[in-house]
Amino acid sequence: MRVAGAWVGWGLGDHSTVDDTVRRAKSYMRRMFASYAGQLADTNVFDLEMEAAVKEMQRRLVERPMNEFRLFPGQFIIGVLDMPTQLAMGFRLPPGPTPAHRRPVIITVEGHMSNMWIGPCAAIAQQLEKEGLAWHQPIGYDSTRLPFNNKSGVDGILSILHSNEIGPPNSRRPFDDDVDVYMLGHSQGAIIVNQVWLNHLRRASGGSKLARRRDRLQRVVVFGDPYREKDADAGWWPDPPKPGTQGISDVRMVDTPPWWKTANRTGDLYTENEDNEVGLYKTSIYKIVSENQWWGGPAGMLARLMDLATPIDDVIPVIKAIMGGIMFVGNMDPHTLYNLDAPTDYIRRGLKGEPRPT
User: Is the pLDDT at 102 greater than 80, yes or no?
Assistant: First the structure.
């Protein structure tokens, strides 16, 4: 909407094919103001229902107690999603340094045999916390057990997502439902982040706490990802995984969202697994080591061993898989050494207001 030729904000009838502000605002209002905006249609058109909901929201924002999120009469346009309204409703953050209690939260989960403070994820989050852009919330879990105790990490993330506060006991900070969330995971930590998304956030329904957290999840980066979808890769480094390869797990991400970056290097056994018989044998080894699983699907080791009773040629992929398996305790550089400039910048751009990739 323009007044005297100047853009003032979104109003009745406004829509765009290149800017999804109205759609995102409707989604935000359905979550945050469900009693009077829960019926808004999932469209990018500022329709009559949106105008009515904005008017009611503005009325309530004017009546709020005196604080930074209040609207003041005469400083906004009734029925228009202008900047004062967007700031007061919390849809946009004010320019300049983000207020401490409104900073996004970066949840990090490091890999097997690591701790929550050391690894690529923690390094990125600590740097961005130093820049005043976010708070770092590391997840401690049982990272030494074999088979993997992924549940301890999943429970750790879910505990944070269900909480209204973050930080150490002597320095707790508010963690409101409308604060943006980022997640980073490495190796076993990547598995845990994947499981939280696949088994909990993606399935969250209605106005549940997890559904609200999911809607504020802006960007995810997973390094050395055993759940990597076939050919998915962030493309940040000059030695990406070979084409046609995928994570070593037989559970993988499906339809990887554009804002979900899986960052991997060639030569990493956990993420560069062949989509063939050799790959199935490697997956069988992985399942035994990480999950103590000897059965289940074509990757189950019992099924693999039964295959040996027929074509003798299957011995060759078994030998190759065992040789590849040596990398579990061999050269781990492709799985642990990363240039963090690109992933740090990716998260930083989001924290500075760049829209989530769609």
Answer: no
Give the integer Cα–Cα distance in Å for 206 and 20.
22
Listed residue (328, 325, 264, 289) closest to 120, CA to CA:
264
Whether 81 and 125 share a structural domain = no
DSSP assignment of 16-70: -SS--HHHHHHHHHHHHSHHHHTT--SSSB--HHHHHHHHHHHHHHHTS-SSTT-
* pLDDT at 293 exceeding the cut of 70: no
pLDDT of residue 214: 94
Q: What is the predicted pLDDT for the residue at 78?
A: 95
Output the CA torsion 115→116→122→126 (10° steps): -120
Instruction: Compare 199 and 321 and report the one with higher pLDDT.
Output: 199
Which residues contact residue 179 at a Cβ distance below 8 angstroms, ignoring those fewer than 6 apart? 102, 103, 104, 105, 216
The candidate with the shortest Cα–Cα distance to 254, out of 272, 231, 237, 276, is 231
* pLDDT on residue 318: 47
Q: Where are the alpha helices (DSSP H) in 163-314?
A: 188-196, 209-215, 277-291, 301-307
State pLDDT tens for residues 197-209: 999 999 998 889 9
In sequence order, which ranges of 90-136 are alpha helices (DSSP H)?
A: 120-130
How many domains does the chain divide into?
2
* 64/201 same-domain check: no
Helix axes 21-32, 48-62, angle to 10 degrees: 60
φ/ψ (deg, to 5) at 91: -70, -35
Average pLDDT, integer, range 156-164? 96
* CATH number, residue 172: 3.40.50.1820
Q: What is the pTM of this model?
A: 0.69
Same-domain check for residues 55 and 160: no
